[in-house]
Design a protein that fits this description.
Layout: H1 26-53, E1 61-64, E2 67-71, H2 78-85, E3 91-96, H3 101-105, E4 114-117, H4 134-150, E5 153-157, E6 162-165, E7 168-171, E8 174-178, E9 184-186, E10 190-194, H5 205-220, H6 223-230, H7 234-254, H8 261-273, H9 286-307, H10 312-315
């Protein structure tokens, strides 16, 4: 995941004739980083709630502590980012998802400098050029490996403190925020959302959660791998999009959100943003998406009343056959 500082000090260079570098407004730089971190916190909080709430139904689960790291090497100007945050090294806490073991442990606070992940100091890895995201991937991979192999991980901080975190199971998916762009995608392993996606400005938390639920649905239903196997024809893509739409309210319900927020999301987003995409037709029109989502709500409500959960693994009707082609098409 690439992160670039947003404040103006990094957006221009001194004239060649100038002998002194422009002054850096570190307060502005820290504020720019903080705005990105606020958005990332929102994404991680919602992602954790969805992944944890649906753990009983996902085909693949992993141990997690809800910890998101940051690496100064992934910024556009690592030295400036390091100074703005008051760090002497590169790795620090980015977020601890609300309700996760990392958040509940105490002490796992934003920008707290990290010197040890179990026995490993990630700062010892060679850093690449600016905007290099590879070390951050390695660090998250290492955390997941420690959780799977040892059932926990000790986090050591530069101030001498330490916390040991014990994981819980969640649906297998990472959630990543991009520092630019207005797209939302899922690749089978990650949900990636650009910071300029309109749902970040929506006033209701549930509407943002609906967006994340749609992308998570692609991952838990195995759409990327299925399309790789069966081809990415317009028809295939459209049916996987419909399936992800229809699963949205199930995921929301199990996470404690209002499942009807899925319909409200498509109504709000579609009226403003979907008109230009209708000619592509690799997904249903926004009004059809509202219709398909709404048709799921009575079944979900009945299951929650009877069983306390919306068991989509047993009761959700698939649009695709995971082992074959498309299922028969059924409209509401």
């Amino acid at each position: 995941m690439r992160r670039a500082l947003l404040a103006g000090a990094l957006l221009f260079a001194a004239p060649l004739a100038a002998q002194t570098a422009p002054a850096i407004d570190y307060t502005a730089e820290r504020a720019a980083i903080g705005r990105f971190q606020d958005a990332d916190q929102r994404l991680q909080d919602v992602g954790w709630r969805l992944a944890r709430g649906n753990v009983g139904f996902c085909p693949k689960v992993v141990p997690s502590v809800g910890l998101q790291l940051q690496d100064m090497a992934s910024y556009g100007a690592p030295a400036i980012a390091r100074k703005a945050l008051g760090l002497t090294r590169d790795f620090a806490v980015q977020t601890a998802a609300r309700g996760s073991p990392a958040a509940l442990a105490g002490g796992v606070t934003r920008n707290r400098e990290i010197v040890r992940l179990e026995a490993l100091d990630p700062n010892a890895w060679p850093a690449g050029k600016a905007m290099d995201w590879q070390r951050l991937v390695w660090a998250h991979d290492h955390v997941e490996a420690m959780l799977a192999e040892h059932g926990g991980i000790a986090i050591g901080f530069a101030d001498g403190g330490e916390v040991r975190l014990q994981p819980v199971e969640v649906c297998a998916s990472r959630f990543e925020l991009m520092g630019e762009g207005d797209k939302a995608v899922a690749d089978g392993n990650r949900v990636v959302i650009g910071i300029d996606f309109p749902a970040f400005a929506y006033p209701e938390e549930e509407l943002f959660a609906a967006l994340v639920a749609h992308e998570l649905a692609h991952n838990v239903l195995g759409h990327d791998a299925w399309l790789d196997t069966h081809g990415r024809s317009r028809r295939h893509v459209r049916r996987t999009e419909r399936e992800a739409d229809r699963l949205m309210p199930w995921l929301l319900a199990n996470a404690g959100y209002d499942p009807a927020a899925a319909a409200r999301f498509w109504d709000r987003w579609g009226r403003k943003h979907d008109a230009g995409l209708l000619m592509v037709r690799n997904h249903d029109g926004w009004d059809e998406r509202v219709e398909f989502v709404t048709a799921e709500l009575p079944l979900i409500a009945g299951l929650v009343t009877r069983e306390g959960r919306a068991d989509w693994r047993s009761h959700f009707r698939r649009e695709i056959n995971p082992a074959g082609g498309l299922m028969p098409e059924v409209r509401p």
